[in-house]
Amino acid sequence: MVNDKLKELGPLYGEIGAAGAAIVGGDPDGLFIYIEIQDYSVYGAVFKDEGAQVRYFDMDDALYELVLDAWEVEPEGKRWLVMEHDVRGRKFEVTLLYPEQVDPKSDSMDRRQAALDKRYGDKPVIYPPIPDHFQELK
Which residues have C-beta within 8 Å of that of residue 53, sequence separation ≥ 6? Predict the structure, then answer.
């Protein structure tokens, strides 16, 4: 059973890394994908270490679909809440956190920031500029 799941998930995790690499321009070294998924609602972000800084990228539809595929491999009631996909050199590591491992009082942005701090330390994260047509709600 575990081997069957690994045979299915191993290639999927590789495809997730390849999709993330495509988003950041091809080189997977320094790639970090942070995903939270619950009840088919996916929140995720892609980050790339650029040396002195880290750059943020949005997920695309291909990555979204691969993440859902990996999540659905798990049986209902035993699915993970957080995936951290970390690429260093030519190797990747996937860390999965289950609902009971996550502080229910924390929100997804706090958890993502904690993961970024753990992965990149105090390197600044560069986000794209806010589009001019966006408005702040008051």
Answer: 123, 124, 125, 126
